[in-house]
Task: structure prediction
Amino acid sequence: MAALAPNPKRLGIFFFFDADGVVDDYIETMLADMVKNTAELCVVVNGKLDSAGRARLEKFADKLIVRENVGLDAWAYKTALDSYGWSRLVEFDETVLFNATIMGPVYPFREMFDSMGTRDIDFWGVTWFHEYPEDPFGTTPEGYIPRHLQSHFHVYRRSLVSAPQFQDYWDHLPPMSSYLDSVGKHEIPFTKRFEKLGFKSDVYVNTEDMEGFTNQPILFAPKTLIAEKRCPIFKRRTFFHPYDDVLNQSVGNAAVELYEYLRDHTDYDTNLIWNNALRSMNMADLVKNLKLTYVLPTQALNPRIETDARPQKLALVAHVYYMDLLDQTLRYLRSMPEGADLIITVGSEEKAAQVRSACAEMPYHVEVRRIENRGRDVSALLVGVKDIIDNYDLVCFFHDKKVTQLTPGSIGDGFAYKCFENLLPTREFIENVVNKFAQEPRLGMMFPTAPNHADYFLPYSIAWGPNFEGTKELLRDMGVEVPLDPHKEPIAPLGTMFWFRPAALAPLFAKDWQWEDFPPEPNAIDGTLLHYIERGYGYFGQSVGYFNAWLFSDNFARIELTNLSYYTKEFSYGTALRFGGGSAMEMLKSLHSHKTLKMRLAHFAKTRLPKSWVAALKRVYLRRGGGK
Result:
């Protein structure tokens, strides 16, 4: 054991897995910096690897091994070690094992290697997992999870690699059939095992000061590690971590703080994050972890962002149907900045004349178009203005709204109010919307969340309703492949009103939609092409590299936060009285699995929901453990 001599000879072993066999550019960025510090790089791929990915990896790899997807990371590393043999491996001063679950480097790897090279150690890592008082895996001799080096980045010195105990460990590594095996049988016990044998370990990012704060600083305090401890890496998992665990261990701030720090205070290109995330992660996970919920001022202006991506040409496309609501509609239209284009679609010449007269003195370029009364607001956008949509950098699409199937009328009016007040409340708000699109060039759409008051509360919780398979089929037929999950809510404008970059909806407009593509009136209230498109809007954008976000005005956010706070308090109180207390996730688990809930299935049919929604609710209920 000794500090490294100058210019050490290192072997890098990089493990890669992607379900689709795609190598994203964050991998290239990481490997390009890593090879500056290694004499040789071996890349081991489990499972698929497409031709473009192979070409990318071959630019850096001295040896490329593509193997069956068995044994997870541990057996991929073992395969690489076996391919060299111990007599060759001991020629290297250090052997570096790292994988594609990390992103970086935020700072050059050389910084880290130079620092660690001065230390008298046998093996080291970048980050610790801190001691946990229990062993849920049942694999540690201590009966608890000891502090250990996280296996996304291990470095072994020659003093360890040449040791018989180390070689025996890898020669007789047990089979790994699951993620739990890899963690419980390899990652957790590895550090303590070799420390007990007398080998000395260390960590680059010392988080002793965070003991008791979190077991996983790299997941729950990544900004601190990067900003204050110069950690060169962060976890890809940060952006899709299961949100129940996020809220069990934190208030949910980690991912958004990391992203915004990287965006605003480092040279790391956040497009590398988006390119991988939008291809491989569910939008619902991204929205929750990254807090893609923007609350913008209605009376003040946020600092103006001047970039080449700033939208310059704006339009509002409005579909007008209810002439008794025209005054209300025009009031919101007047929030647009002067000089913007207004394209208003109507279903008759009589309506067109009325709208032209009402808009005559407005300070906009107004065009009123007569369209066919088929396909409602969806066709008004996809057919009615398809010839001009690419003329604009940013568009707001909205329509007048009157809900007639619910009583009292104030229920449906609340839905309309939520849409309008979070899209076009004031000119200041719209300037802030434009500014947000300038700040985030990968932002494709923004729209209000679905209503959650009165009769809308239950549909809010199962927003796919009977539309998942139809939406999935629509996307597939149009060549759109993105991660979809019927158990995760659609990130969609349920109300069909939104701000969008036309570039984000290019795959949708690429189809030459015709009026005949849409069902004639009367339309069903759910489960039609209109509803599939409504839920699919944002996924077209995701397929070409844009993310979606929820949008609130500061005024309406006051209402929303008050309502959600009330719901949370009342439902948690009722659940605790019936099934016992605990954390929110413990209470929800108890609620979903309680045997007495069998009776609830019989009650679903008595609700005022359409039968298709009742069936969807039953499926959700049974999936979450009801009726066991």
Summary: The chain has a mean pLDDT of 93. The two ends are 58 Å apart (CA to CA). The domain at 311-554 is CATH 3.90.550 (Spore Coat Polysaccharide Biosynthesis Protein SpsA; Chain A).
